[in-house]
Design goal:
Layout lengths: L1 E5 L3 H10 L6 E5 L6 H4 L17 H8 L3 E4 L14 H15 L4 E3 L6
Parallel strand pairs: 1-2, 1-3, 3-4
Amino acid sequence: MRILVVGAGRIGIEVLRQLFKNPALTVLVLDPREEPLAIREGVIEQVDFHESLTPLTLDYVLAQAMPDLVLLTTSTEDLGLGRSAGVDLLGAALKDELAAIAQVPVIEVARSRV
């Protein structure tokens, strides 16, 4: 199974560590940042795709990665949206749109506080 993890920040690191426990999985990482936290902390050596995942880039990314599943982190920075006021609403709408139009399952991963 090929899994595309979108975002290599704090939540992405947690997801990656769990996925790496199963050697049968092929894990690919997409992050628009030059050196995301997962690289700085040694969780991954490199990002497979330096893109911002948007409805405009979705088809291209899916064609390149050919994932069976896409896991989205919750950080707007992981999506290349930055930290401006109101960007959280834009990020939520973007994630909903990506899930609706993608030809593969897209699941948003949020950090649990339980």
